[in-house]
Amino acid sequence: MIFVPAQSIHLGIFMNATGKQNISKASHVDRARERLENAVVRLDQAIKNMPESSSGSGSQEQTGEIAALKAENAKLQETSRTVSGRLDQTIGKLKAVLES
């Protein structure tokens, strides 16, 4: 006995020129259209299941939040450079005092 997966058999019912129904193999185009329709259904389901914050206005909120965080990061980096420079100066002065 030979096992043939159900997915590999594609039969369709088509009307012939005389108006009678014909059972024949689905064409490549029909199978491609079926796969496309299934993919569209999956995409629709995925969009429906997306959290509210990932769509429309949520994205604008996230963009604004990202911009604010980048600005804060730049400010903190500048503060860090300033503090680091001042610490280096103080350490240099302390070394000079200790050496003398």
- How does the major sheet shape up? 2 strands, antiparallel
Number of structurally distinct domains? 2
Structural class: mainly alpha
> Mean pLDDT, nearest integer?
77
Helix content: 55-70%
Can you summarize this structure?
The protein has 100 residues and is mainly alpha-helical.
Structure write-up:
Helices cover 64% and strands 10% of the residues. The chain is mainly alpha-helical and 100 residues long. The protein folds into two domains: 1-49, no CATH class; 53-100. The protein has a two-stranded antiparallel sheet with strand order 1-2. It is rod-shaped, with a radius of gyration of 34 Å. The protein starts with 10 loop residues before the first strand and ends with a helix.
